[in-house]
């Protein structure tokens, strides 16, 4: 499925949920990272959906909670800020 629609956050998030249902948190994280690397930079809303899912994953499963959530949040902010700067310079 991913090969036919690599820019679909819906499919990536479904795979993340599948791994979480198997209690495979690391595989779900890996899937989130792959999604962020694979989804085309122009598909901003699709990437944002993955960031939200990744943030929720860390919020639910990471220990110590604060460290992981802060790291993911900082990375997501960098992504969002870089998109804002690209729009402002256009």
UniProtKB/TrEMBL annotation:
**Entry annotated with the keyword Transmembrane helix:** no
Single GO biological process annotation from the record? RNA splicing
Give the source's domain of life in one word. Answer: Eukaryota
Instruction: One Pfam family, please name it.
Output: HAT_Syf1_CNRKL1_N
Key words of the record: mRNA processing, mRNA splicing
Q: Where is the Pre-mRNA-splicing factor Syf1-like N-terminal HAT-repeats domain?
A: 11-79
Question: Which InterPro entries does the protein's record reference?
Answer: HAT_Syf1-like_N, Rrp5, TPR-like_helical_dom_sf
Task: Give the family this protein belongs to, as stated in its UniProt record.
Answer: Belongs to the crooked-neck family.
* Designated name of the protein: Pre-mRNA-splicing factor Syf1-like N-terminal HAT-repeats domain-containing protein
> Lineage in the entry?
Eukaryota, Viridiplantae, Streptophyta, Embryophyta, Tracheophyta
């Amino acid at each position: 499925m991913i090969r036919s629609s690599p820019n679909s956050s819906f499919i990536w998030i479904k795979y993340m949920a599948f791994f979480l249902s198997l209690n495979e948190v690391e595989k779900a994280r890996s899937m989130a990272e792959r999604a962020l690397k694979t989804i085309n930079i122009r598909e901003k809303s699709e990437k944002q959906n993955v960031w939200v899912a990744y943030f929720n994953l860390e919020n639910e499963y990471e220990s110590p909670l604060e460290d992981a959530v802060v790291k993911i949040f900082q990375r997501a902010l960098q992504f969002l800020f870089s998109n804002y700067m690209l729009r402002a310079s256009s």
